[in-house]
């Protein structure tokens, strides 16, 4: 059966737009202009907009009317100069596009919403938390999980400060985090987040027995429990959700479909196929009425209905859990990308370093900590961050000749490190590191006689076995193991925590590659949030510093690419031209990351992985200046011919001139694209494409008068 619990969580539990009974996605957003809409075409009324949107959903006309309505509202708000109203529209649009599976359409909306909120000075407010939640959920729906988790982490940090303890928006955030953990196969964390959400909602409810949000939380929890194999608990929560819809006379709500489909899935797992099919039919009718038939929601449920009907009619003897397991394996197992010769090399591990680290933590490290350090288990952060190709996710078969193997970091506060750090490091070093990888790419760790914990391999007999060697980086220079949080970041950046927001000179001393190493990788758990808060601090580059760096990069692009490169070529100094191209490319690559905002996409890493990172960013549906990467590679590809081709180089003796002309045209095209983006972000009012002249316009937006931030 094509049953995807994660898809159902996304399908029904993600809180939808501004409809009745939702965990409100727009609560706390600033109200817009209160002018009457008919006084002038250049006015926008937020309340009128939301009422009109509610009417569309109440009439179940969202499939045909919501999209055009939202597009026109964004135009009206922008024309009226109503930034608060526009932010409300953008948040609503993200929710609608997500529900329709229109992830590409959300591309510029997510970026624009964050930029707008920052420009409005909303960082740290309730509105900022709400906007981050919506952006993170859009990123999660687009399967951009790392970026989504970063945004959710920021949102939770902000929400816990500005929301009351029993605020339902806080419950919605825990609910969304649970979906992220579920989709990334961290089910215990998903269950924990849902339990927190349910506790908050029940505490805030006047009547939990008839509360639609309580019902939704029970459904979500049932689906996660089902994935964990806790069938009886899943049935209880799924049935409770239906009871609430019935008691509260809420069966005409769009979210009723979630409860029906959730209970159907539990029934299927219990091999009660006819009953499952009946509930899927009811869910399908609700989805068609509320969302239409041309949606992922409808298609997934229709497939599940078909499978349930097939099971009911054929009375297949296989158990539902086996069927679900097999279909999940078929859906999740990616074809191995190795060549025939590679597959014969037993030394090549087909698993990425980050995946190996996560499995090493889940299978070996975490059980050891629970067993030996139970009182500290909820205070230790774990993950893999820092130096190394795998921390960027760029490792491949060529990266496995050094420092490759199962490893992770454990981060403790100063007090805990003093108490257990030395012994925990010894226990970490003693963990068994031999593992096998089966044909599906599943990792199984194998305990040895002296391992801290004994593990029995469940891998197939023909699985590849790996016995990693000891990494070269040991002692004070080690890249994994047990660290004080402050010491870890000091080893990378020289700072135990990020410089203060009002210390721009310190930020300018940290190059982007250093900041990339401090903020890359993945955090597997952080119960107290201490490590993530410090890590996020390094990501949160002050806006004045970002603008100052953008100005500096504009100057170098102009100086090296637009001015010195053509002159060097004309005077025949190939070496100078080559170095000019290098400076131009470095500055442009950095600018792309700065324009896309490090808070969202991270920093440009060191030279070895700059283009791997730039290609990855440019391939994202949310990228700004996405075409620049390919153009830079064109410049580099032609640089040899342009700089050293000579007078008769090339076909027909045309010399190096054609290559030089293409490079010059490409440099100017990149400059024009940069100016277009600067104008879109309202960082300049000028159309001048010689980028040196754009610097004063950009620097006008720097609030501080610190001379370190301004050009001479």
UniProtKB/TrEMBL annotation:
SUPFAM superfamilies registered for this protein in UniProt: TPR-like
Record's compositionally biased regions (Polar residues): 326-347
Record field: compositional bias (Basic and acidic residues): 308-320
UniProt xrefs under Pfam families: DUF4037, TPR_10, TPR_12
Source domain of life: Bacteria
Keywords: Repeat, TPR repeat
Ranges for region Disordered: 19-45, 308-347
Xref: PANTHER family: NEPHROCYSTIN-3, TETRATRICOPEPTIDE REPEAT PROTEIN (AFU_ORTHOLOGUE AFUA_6G03870)
Protein name as it appears in the record: DUF4037 domain-containing protein
Natural source organism: Bifidobacterium imperatoris
């Amino acid at each position: 059966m094509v049953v995807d619990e994660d898809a159902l969580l996304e399908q029904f539990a993600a809180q939808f737009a501004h409809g009745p009974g939702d965990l409100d996605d727009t609560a706390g957003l600033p109200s817009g202009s209160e002018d009457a809409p008919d006084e002038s075409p250049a006015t926008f009324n937020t309340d009128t907009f939301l009422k009109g949107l509610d009417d569309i959903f109440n009439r179940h006309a969202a499939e045909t009317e919501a999209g055009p309505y939202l597009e026109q509202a964004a135009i009206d708000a922008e024309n009226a100069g109503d930034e608060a109203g526009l932010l409300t529209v953008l948040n609503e649009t993200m929710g609608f596009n997500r529900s329709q599976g229109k992830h590409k359409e959300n591309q510029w909306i997510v970026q624009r919403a964050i930029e707008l909120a920052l420009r409005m000075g909303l960082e740290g407010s309730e509105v900022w938390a709400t906007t981050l939640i919506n952006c993170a959920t859009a990123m999660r729906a687009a399967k951009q999980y790392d970026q989504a988790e970063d945004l959710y982490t920021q949102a939770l940090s902000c929400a816990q400060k500005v929301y009351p303890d029993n605020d339902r928006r806080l419950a919605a955030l825990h609910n969304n985090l649970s979906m992220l953990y579920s989709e990334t196969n961290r089910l215990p964390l998903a269950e924990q987040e849902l339990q927190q959400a349910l506790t908050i909602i029940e505490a805030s409810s006047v009547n939990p027995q008839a509360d639609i949000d309580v019902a939704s939380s029970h459904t979500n929890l049932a689906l996660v429990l089902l994935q964990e194999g806790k069938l009886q608990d899943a049935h209880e929560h799924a049935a409770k959700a239906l009871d609430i819809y019935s008691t509260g006379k809420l069966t005409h709500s769009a979210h009723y479909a979630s409860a029906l489909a959730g209970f159907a899935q539990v029934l299927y797992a219990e091999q009660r196929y006819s009953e499952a099919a009946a509930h899927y039919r009811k869910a399908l009718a609700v989805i068609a009425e509320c969302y239409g038939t041309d949606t992922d929601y409808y298609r997934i449920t229709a497939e599940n209905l078909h499978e349930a009907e097939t099971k009911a009619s054929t009375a297949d003897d296989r158990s539902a859990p086996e069927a679900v397991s097999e279909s999940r394996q078929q859906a999740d197992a990616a074809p191995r990308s190795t060549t025939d010769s590679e597959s014969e090399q037993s030394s090549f591990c087909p698993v990425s370093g980050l995946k190996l680290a996560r499995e090493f933590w889940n299978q070996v490290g975490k059980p050891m900590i629970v067993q030996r350090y139970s009182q500290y288990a909820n205070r230790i952060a774990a993950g893999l961050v820092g130096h190394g190709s795998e921390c960027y996710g760029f490792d491949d078969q060529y990266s496995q000749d050094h420092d490759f193997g199962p490893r992770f970091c454990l981060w403790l506060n100063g007090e805990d490190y003093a108490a257990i750090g030395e012994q925990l490091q010894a226990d970490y070093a003693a963990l068994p590191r031999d593992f096998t990888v089966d044909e599906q790419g599943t990792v199984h760790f194998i305990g040895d006689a002296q391992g801290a914990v004994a593990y029995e391999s469940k891998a197939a007999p023909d699985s590849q076995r790996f016995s990693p060697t000891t990494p070269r980086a040991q002692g004070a220079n080690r890249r994994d193991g047990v660290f004080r949080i402050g010491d870890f970041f000091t080893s990378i950046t020289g700072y135990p925590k990020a410089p203060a927001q009002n210390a721009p000179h310190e930020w300018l001393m940290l190059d982007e590659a250093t900041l990339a190493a401090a903020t890359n990788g993945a955090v597997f758990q952080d119960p107290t949030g201490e490590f993530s808060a410090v890590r996020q601090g390094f990501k949160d580059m002050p806006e004045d510093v970002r603008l100052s760096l953008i100005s500096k990069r504009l100057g170098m692009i102009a100086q090296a690419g637009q001015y010195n490169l053509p002159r060097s070529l004309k005077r025949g100094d190939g070496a100078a031209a080559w170095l000019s191209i290098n400076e131009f490319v470095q500055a442009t690559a950095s600018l792309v990351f700065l324009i896309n905002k490090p808070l969202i996409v991270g920093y440009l890493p060191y030279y070895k992985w700059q283009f791997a990172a730039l290609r990855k960013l440019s391939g994202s549906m949310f990228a700004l200046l996405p075409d620049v990467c390919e153009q830079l590679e064109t410049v580099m590809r032609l640089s040899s011919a342009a700089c050293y081709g000579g007078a008769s180089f090339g076909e027909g003796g045309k010399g190096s001139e054609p290559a030089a002309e293409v490079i010059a045209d490409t440099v100017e095209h990149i400059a024009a694209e940069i100016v277009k983006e600067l104008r879109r972000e309202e960082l300049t009012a000028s159309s001048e494409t010689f980028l040196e002249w754009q610097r004063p316009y950009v620097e006008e937006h720097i609030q501080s008068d610190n001379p370190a931030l301004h050009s001479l």
